[in-house]
Amino acid sequence: MPEIRIGRHTIGAHSEPFIIAEVSGNHDGSLDTALKIVRMVADSGAQAVKLQTYKPETITIESDAPDFRLSEGHELWGGRTLWDLYQEAHTPWEWHEPIFSLAKELGLVAFSSPFDPTAIDLLEDLDTPAYKIASSEIVDLPLIRLAASKGKPMIISTGMASVSEIDAAVEAARSTGNEQIVVLSCTADYPADPSESNLRGIPLMRDTFGTPIGLSDHTTGIGAALAAVALGACVVEKHVTLARDGGGVDSSFSLEPQELNALVRESRTAWQALGQPRIGAVATEREGLRFRRSLYVVQDVHAGDLVTAANVRSIRPALGLAPDLFSVVLGRTFTQDVSRGTALSWDLV
User: Fold this and answer.
1) Which of these, 133, 173, 271, 320, could form a disulfide with 156 (CB 3.0-4.6 Å)?
2) How far apart are CA 182 and CA 132, in angstroms?
3) Which domain, by its residues, includes 195?
4) Which segments constitute the AFP-like domain (predicted)?
5) Is beta strand 294-297 parallel, antiparallel or unpaired with respect to 342-343?
């Protein structure tokens, strides 16, 4: 499996999970809030902060027609027009430079999802270290080819996509000579039901597409993300907010600061716990091996005495004969005087 470099970070099975904190629209229309989120992300220990780069007019048109309106039953945005939603949620382009600059100053990787060629132009001017293709844009192969042609790592989200659509997107990126591709398992529902995450598909995706696999997670909490790491996810992307009750179009399924801290900490633990595909004692268990049970003489005995359940028992530590050999030595005679607390060995009976 290839390893991908983004900034100073390596993405792959032998590196700790790469945690991406997605700001999305949780800045709630305030640059100051956006910058506070960046500082919060840096404090958490996450490696990256991500934006979405579009204007309402670059992603849709202003229209009240049914085609451009979310269904009334949508849990978060029911009945809203696309124009209205994107007008509220978009990150103004003039904010990108101060956000990227602060992130870099704090040691974070900052990058974004472009939604049209003009967004790629802006992000190139900011020397973005990577591109993220959002789930809905996975079918926009010209956009994928253009982003991939810049020679930066490509992270492709796969919500709603079929195997053939994912393969087409990956091959579109590869057609430019760019092999720096990460594919993210994703359920594009907001918030997503954990039962629809199908994380067992992560190893299948890895083998199918030959790329590192991650998770773009829209469930609440961090349980699904930790399960994904256990199944081999190298990247975890979660939406973040300063406070769920403080507004922001995605705040209801976003992580608050203490939850992001927990995700960073526990995903690292989950990755470390994967270890190697082997069974058996490890070096740190060496001391414990000494304190398994074995057969010991537990009473002073004399030469010629019989071995009985009263004078030989299975106790700790493990320097005598194996406990299962008691039935073999029971009734034999001691060959010499033996003091209490002596490990039983064949020369003693």
Assistant:
1) 133
2) 9
3) 4-55+90-274
4) 294-349
5) antiparallel
Beta carbons of 339 and 290 less than 8 angstroms apart: no
SS3 7: coil
Distance of CA 331 to the CA centre of its chain: 60
pTM (predicted TM-score): 0.89
Distance CA 91, CA 86 (A): 9
pLDDT tens digits, 45-91: 999 999 999 999 999 999 999 999 988 877 777 788 999 888 988 99
Type of residue numbered 344: L
Last residue of a domain, one of 222, 251, 274: 274
Position 203: which residue type? Answer: P
- Are residues 243 and 151 part of one domain? yes
Query: Would strands 312-315 and 235-239 be described as parallel, antiparallel, or unpaired?
Result: unpaired
**CA nearest 96: which of 67, 60, 128?**
128
The residue among 255, 249, 256, 254 whose CA lies nearest residue 76 is 249
